[in-house]
Amino acid sequence: MNMKVSSNNTNNESCPTMREYSSAQELVNNIPYMAMMVLGTAVLAVGFRNSTWGLIAAAAYLAYGAAGAFWIMIFVCPYCRYWNSKSCPCGYGRIAAKFREKSPAECFDEKFKKHIPVIVPLWFIPLLAGLPVVIYSFSWMLLVLLVIFALDAFVILPLISTKHGCKECPQKDMCPWIKLTGKSAGLTV
Ligand code: SF4
User: N or C, which terminus of the chain has less Cβ within 10 Å?
Assistant: First the structure.
């Protein structure tokens, strides 16, 4: 995993030194979100005993997770200073450039607050679907899946986001995400 510091491939002239992420690093940074999708899908499939409706719910959750990622790329990333640069830790910024032109970075906070609720249910659907099944019809496999899902979604994913990309982000002072998660990750903003 290579990571270097760049002064010429960003969309923020006021921030002279920003990291650039290699494709491998971008992939690694996407693992917690991808793991959340896979675990959430497994929770729904196992929770509904692999029934037809369970498999439909699991497939719908997976599709929702993929659509949510594109939603962020289309409606949030164009307002980010990392748009179309290798300084975006997860690579969304460069993919976003294929869909949308650069938009005013001053609107980032507003757009983030407006669009992030679209994907928030991804963090809760597997828990809301799986916990009642564990309580009323106990299953070790489902319990283990739920615990790993919760660890990934509520501990690992926010920790990696704030420790890596957000730490150097020029928008961190106005970013609602880092205000929510920065303290628990040991960041001062
Ligand atoms: S840092 Fe976040 S908002 Fe900015 S381009 Fe990357 S994914 Fe989009």
Answer: N
